[in-house]
Amino acid sequence: MALENSPDAQTFLTTHKKRKSRTVLLIPGIFDRGTSLLKMQHELAADGFDAHYIHLRYNSGWHGMEHLSSQLLAKLEHIVEKDTTCTLVGFSMGGIVARYYLQALQGIHRVHKFISISSPHYGSYWASFLPYKGGKQLRVGSDFLRKLNHGLKMLESTQPVSIWTRYDITIMPHSSAILGLGTTYEVPVILHRMMPMSRKVISVLKRELELGMA
User: Fold this and answer.
1) How far apart, in whole angstroms, are the C-alpha atoms of residue 24 and residue 33?
2) Tell me: the pLDDT tens digits for 63-105?
3) H helix runs in the chain, sequence order
């Protein structure tokens, strides 16, 4: 896993100055059926953002985060103009998919803002019930997350934001959704699946997107 010590990644950071675009890629969570981020997409579009709902194949995580992040890379390169950067918004597992793209696939130079919503940055106990590769990667104390978090500082250039709720019974422990870098918002939403549809969450998201354009 090539993280913050990658010479290529550092070269991109220091030599590629790109224009910030209003393009936003919305990355859904596990078992997404194509509807969880629609409200968010529509509201961002109404505010002048070019919001794209990124649909990933095998979103159970069966083949691991690497497989999903590679799809994200391909879709981003197709959507985002080469001389610009974009914003990544990841809900739940989508935030981990985004992080692997940023930290291990040299995506850091293509993104000026990263926002995670209820993402298990430090794992979730519920992932222990998923016996396949992606589930094992999302478990508390997994080697995958340990390596990813070892390179956490690499995300500083993306002005990271993590949004979480203490009422979330999917991300356990709740504190796992706090990235530990950048800005953190706690919102009083009662269910994990309601987070991306919450008016308060979307309001925070819009504000942070505008700040990211400054």
Assistant:
1) 20
2) 999 999 999 999 999 999 999 999 999 999 999 999 999 999 9
3) 7-15, 38-46, 65-79, 93-104, 133-137, 143-150, 199-213
pLDDT of residue 118: 97
**Shortest CA distance to 37 belongs to which of 93, 110, 85, 75?**
93
Provide DSSP, 112-147: EEEEEES--TT--GGGGG--SHHHHHTSTT-HHHHH
pLDDT tens figures, 154-206 = 999 999 999 999 999 899 999 999 999 999 999 999 999 999 999 999 999 99
**Alpha carbons 20 and 110: distance in angstroms, whole number:** 9
Q: And the tokens for 35?
A: 């509807």
How far apart CA 126 and CA 54 sit, in angstroms, is 24
Q: Which residues of 16-52 are buried (b: 16+ CB within 10 A; e: fewer)?
A: eebeebbbbbbbbbbebeeebbeebbebbeeeebebb
Q: Check pLDDT > 60 for residue 140.
A: yes
Residue 32 or residue 152, greater confidence: 152
8 Å CB contact between 138 and 123: yes
Q: What distance in Å separates the CA atoms of residue 158 and residue 107, rounded to the nearest whole number? A: 11
How many angstroms separate the CA atoms of 107 and 100, rounded?
9
